[in-house]
């Protein structure tokens, strides 16, 4: 079996666009910084996002039945850090105090100045190993200013 630390070292060399996946359910909001997200199809428009399945707080995505994928720009590192979980003292309200959050179609929080935000209806959840894969049909889109994208590679932020 492959050593998990070797796999993590190899994946650290894989550049990923930094995004915040968000949802809201019964007055509660949740957002998580991720790099594992991508397009699935354009007919119908569909995206996927991967979250840690062992974090019980992430079950809200299942209950809500909706999520938004918010693509960050290089000047939004502070926002990425706020939602990364690096500071466990930050409450959900503290995290959402960073940024200008709105709703489009589904009611999931959408970052007003995200490079692009995909407002999605949850179509399916697959649990694979340690992660849950959220598959969502895009119900709404918004575009912020065109700026360099925020990437994560070699265990640090980069701009493209």
From TrEMBL:
<dbReference type="GO" id="GO:0016491">
    <property type="term" value="F:oxidoreductase activity"/>
</dbReference>
<dbReference type="InterPro" id="IPR012349">
    <property type="entry name" value="Split_barrel_FMN-bd"/>
</dbReference>
<protein>
    <submittedName>
        <fullName>Flavin reductase family protein</fullName>
        <ecNumber>1.-.-.-</ecNumber>
    </submittedName>
</protein>
<dbReference type="InterPro" id="IPR002563">
    <property type="entry name" value="Flavin_Rdtase-like_dom"/>
</dbReference>
<dbReference type="Pfam" id="PF01613">
    <property type="entry name" value="Flavin_Reduct"/>
</dbReference>
<feature type="domain" description="Flavin reductase like">
    <location>
        <begin position="11"/>
        <end position="159"/>
    </location>
</feature>
<dbReference type="InterPro" id="IPR050268">
    <property type="entry name" value="NADH-dep_flavin_reductase"/>
</dbReference>
<keyword id="KW-0560">Oxidoreductase</keyword>
């Amino acid at each position: 079996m492959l050593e998990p630390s070797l796999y993590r070292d190899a994946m650290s060399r894989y550049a990923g666009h930094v995004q915040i996946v968000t949802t809201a359910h019964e007055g509660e909001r949740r957002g998580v910084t991720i790099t594992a997200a991508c397009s699935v199809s354009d007919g119908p428009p569909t995206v996927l996002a991967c979250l840690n399945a062992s974090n019980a707080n992430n079950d809200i995505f299942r209950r809500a039945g909706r999520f938004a994928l918010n693509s960050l720009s290089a000047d939004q590192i502070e926002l990425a850090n706020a939602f990364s979980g690096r500071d466990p003292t930050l409450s959900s309200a503290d995290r959402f105090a960073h940024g200008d959050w709105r709703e489009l179609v589904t009611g999931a929080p959408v970052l007003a100045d995200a490079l692009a935000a995909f407002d999605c209806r949850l179509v399916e959840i697959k649990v694979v190993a340690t992660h849950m894969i959220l598959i969502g049909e895009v119900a709404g889109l918004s575009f912020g200013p065109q700026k360099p994208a925020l990437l994560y590679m070699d265990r640090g932020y980069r701009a493209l």
